[in-house]
Amino acid sequence: MSARLTTLARKRGRLPALITAALVAGLILVQAVVSSLAAWIGGAFYQRVSFGAVAFDDFSPWQPYLLDSFVKVTLPFAVGVFLSLWLIAPLAGELRVRFVITRGLLASAAGSVLVLVVNVVVEFVTMLGFGFDIRGLAHTGITAIGTAVNVFVYTTPIVVLAAVLLWLWLREHPREYEVSGLIDEL
Prior knowledge:
By secondary structure, this protein is mostly helical. It has five helices and no strands. The protein is globular, with a radius of gyration of 20 Å. The two termini are 18 Å apart. The mean pLDDT is 84.
């Protein structure tokens, strides 16, 4: 098993996959910041109209959510996209558009599966700290599946666009080595 892992670690082509995944994560992070800021401003104005000047006393309620969302959703999703575009289904300039889109969909699915796994593990460990409960475990699983599906639905267009842009770049800058992933070896 360690020989297989060593072979995978030495596999070339990680830089284009890493840059693509980092750009996807950056875009998702910018979307989260702008969305959270817009929600905070809307809520603050609503409070200002309803309750007066006390609405602007606290500026930090949306910051913990961003950190939690980044650690449990954005980062695992980007790692899954990176691993998919590097090891599972890398892109090459010789591919046709339908295969590029399919590999982008696969990368988004891999990111979503990693989000599911991370959310289940984090929530399970948190639940163990408060005492194990079978219903809590079921709720954790349902919530994690919902989060993963939500991430897949909302981020797939971004990943597919990133895959197409990477493919266009690779067509202009061909690699000097053979590109193949786990999906190509089946």
